[in-house]
Design a protein that fits this description.
It is a single chain. The longest helix is centred in the middle third of the chain and has 15 residues. With 380 residues, the protein is an alpha+beta fold. Strands 2, 4, 6, 7, 9, 10 and 19 form a 7-stranded mixed β-sheet that branches. The protein has a 4-stranded antiparallel β-sheet with strand order 15-14-13-18, with helices on one face. The N terminus is likely disordered. A hairpin with a 2-residue loop joins β14 and β15. 19% of the residues lie in helices and 32% in strands. The protein is built from 8 helices and 19 strands.
Length: 380
């Protein structure tokens, strides 16, 4: 494993570090990078403030038609006891171009769980969104043209950590709508998804800035890699508190720290915002110590290649201990050992579109384990 090969510390500290890595199973990302010893503490992060990223960004929705025409005048039919209401689109069947806007409210009082799950399905493919309170989101039709079904599940059982990361849930279907996507573009690895919010203004703004600094897509792919490695630091605090922050791209952009899922979602979101296809890969990684891990598969020039921003942003050892940060504003610790590789000898992943049938009873009831931490099994 990379950090074991490059570690320059006494055996006692090596054992300590391996113990720390072993504790990371709860986070969904067991394996972290560790760099050689440094005498200097890293300086404060010098990245731009989030607010500056969102200035003068053209919304992605401007390139697509969104809601087009209704198939009929029927309103969305919900169960009589449902706590879900809709304000947009409010119709149960319509045509759309690439995406549609969804708005409404989830009411909750007393012991009610304040969530609904939107499951968007086309054939055997599916993706999910969480809905809560007054929601207003763009739902992207990522699986090319054709008929999509949106089922809305009232959540009756949920487990989540104090940061709102959901680990398990069950629910009952309360409403269904049908959408005909007229756009033939395959947006599976290009459009925004619930945890990879490439339409977030701050993320889109950063993508726009990076695109303006390069002259080719490949240079952009590397520039995004370097920026993510420099901007984020590895969230070692999640070890001591035994629960972690949200790992979706928007949350990571704000928090400036992540484990492997968050490194991957932010990198993929920036690439997608710049028009580059990026896929979320999960599996295991390591040599002597094997743990769960996540990384990216990126498309350019007619070929897919792997990129692991987490392992290219290794932690440094300071006075024999993990420094608690991989954040070096000058990028001193960043490397490209895991950038644009055809294969990895120490990553044992699968091309996860996060689709499976686990826990699905029928359209009326559903229970789901989580493959992507915080989201039901699906394609993101």
């Amino acid at each position: 494993m990379k950090h074991q090969r490059r570690l320059k510390a006494p055996l006692f500290y090596l054992i300590f570090i391996l113990f720390i890595a072993g504790l990371m199973t709860f986070s969904g990302c067991d394996i972290l990078g560790i760099e050689q010893e440094s005498e200097d503490q890293p300086a404060e992060d010098g990245a731009d403030e989030i607010g500056e990223e969102a200035q003068s960004v053209t919304p992605l929705t401007n390139s697509y038609g969104g809601f087009l025409t209704a198939h009929n005048d029927a309103a969305i039919l919900t169960s009589s006891n449902s706590r879900l209401s809709f304000t947009d689109p409010g119709l149960d069947s319509f045509d759309a171009d690439g995406y549609f806007h969804l708005a409404g409210n989830v009411s909750a009082t007393g012991t009610d769980i304040p969530y609904f799950a939107l499951r968007l399905t086309k054939g055997d493919e599916k993706t999910y969104y969480w809905l809560t309170d007054d929601f207003s989101i763009d739902v992207w039709l990522r699986f090319s043209e054709g008929i999509y079904t949106a089922d809305f599940f009232e959540i009756t059982v949920v487990e989540e950590n104090p940061n709102g990361v959901i680990s398990s849930w069950s629910g009952t279907s309360r409403a269904t709508i049908t959408i005909n996507n007229t756009n033939s573009e395959d947006g599976r690895d290009l459009y925004p998804s619930a945890p990879i919010q490439s339409d977030d203004p701050a993320i889109a703004g950063r993508a726009q800035t990076l695109k303006g600094e390069v002259s080719s897509d490949f240079e952009y792919i590397q520039a995004a890699h370097d920026w993510v490695c420099q901007y984020l630091y590895y969230d070692l605090d999640s070890i001591s508190r035994e629960y972690r922050e949200k790992q979706d791209a928007s949350s990571v952009m704000v928090n400036k720290m992540a484990v492997c899922e968050g490194y991957t979602t932010l990198y993929n979101a920036i690439l997608r915002a710049g028009g580059v296809k990026a896929r979320y890969i999960t599996g295991t990684a390591g040599v002597d110590t094997i743990g769960s891990h996540a990384w990216s598969r990126v498309y350019n020039g007619g070929e897919w290649r792997y990129v692991d921003t987490t392992w290219d942003d290794p932690l440094w050892i300071i006075d024999g201990y993990p420094s608690g940060t991989s954040d070096f504003p000058d990028g001193e610790n960043i490397n490209h050992d895991y950038f644009w590789k055809e294969t990895y000898s120490d990553h044992y992943g699968y091309e996860l579109d996060m689709t499976d049938a686990r826990g699905v009873a029928d359209v009326q009831t559903m229970t789901s384990d989580m493959d992507f931490p915080g989201y039901p099994a699906g394609s993101y």
